[in-house]
User: Fold this.
Amino acid sequence: MAQDKRPLFTRRLSSWMKGAGASSDIVLSSRVRLARNLDSIPFPPKMGREDALKVLDLAERATDHLVRSTDEAWDFYRLGDMDDLDRWVLVEKHLISPQLVKSSALSGLILRQDEAVSIMVNEEDHLRIQCLFPGLNVEDAWQLGDAVDDVLSEIVRYGFDDKLGYLTTCPTNVGTGMRVSVMLHLPGLVMTERLESVISGLSKVGSVVRGLYGEGSEAQGNLFQISNRLTLGSDEDEIIANLSAVVNEVVQRERSAREIVYDRDRKRLEDRVCRAYGLLTNARLMTSEEAIRLLSLLRLGIDLQVISGLSAGVFQELMIRMRPSLIQRNSGDVLDADERDEKRAALMRNALLKRR
Assistant:
């Protein structure tokens, strides 16, 4: 299959950034990830180069099978054929994990062209099927992931045990191999200093809270991922039902916290939001850390109707487009930190003023 990377880096938005699902004022996206390994090849941490190349060749054939078996267009990419900048663009668009970049010489990516489905090849497991949907929509994400999994299982044989279920590199993924995660914007809980107690409560019911890019990443812009901790002992429907109930509870607490913030000091909140908008539409230099902080305030202002004339989707778009590798990639030039900050500030000004 001929590989053409150009469409991958000219698509500005993935489908999950453009839609609006349930509770989209707080829940930005829902993701279902299925970990799968091949029964005849050692797990990635133990396999050699020849085994890794076999998995890549099989993934390329699997891509052809997906093209023939579905109504969607799919592409296969060998990450070793990309430069480091392009690989980090994929991380910033939430299509691959930082861990996959570290093993990029022998890793790959199967991608549906609307970027709703990405399949990482030779990460912690041989295959990791990921489906991303806007808003709180884990059920549809699971149904799509299950359908893709069924198509792949027609040409690959998974490592599976009748008692344990799907066999995975990490013991916490054994069983269904399913990890369900939801990305939420929680400025109200942060401002009212209630987030820590919420996180403590989540850990007691088998959920875990992580940062913007999942495990090992820090929270930025009041964005947090909530996911299930274990996959063994529950079926897929139970995992989805349990996590959905947890997320709905957090959503209600965030809405209550926003009301408290707004009622307690409306003028001060409005001032913070309007100052953030003023900086975003006038600054000439802006770091990624400052941009995500200001965008979080802007999004809160949009949701509370402090700011009018802007759609909430501008937050999802700009929080991705302003990332360092994407700024660098879209410029077409090698940029130092100050030049990236200048490009980022211009991106914010032009994108926001164009939409008013």
The chain has two domains: 6-258, 265-355. The beta strands are 27-36, 74-78, 108-112, 117-121, 127-134, 160-161, 165-166, 178-185, 207-210, 223-228.
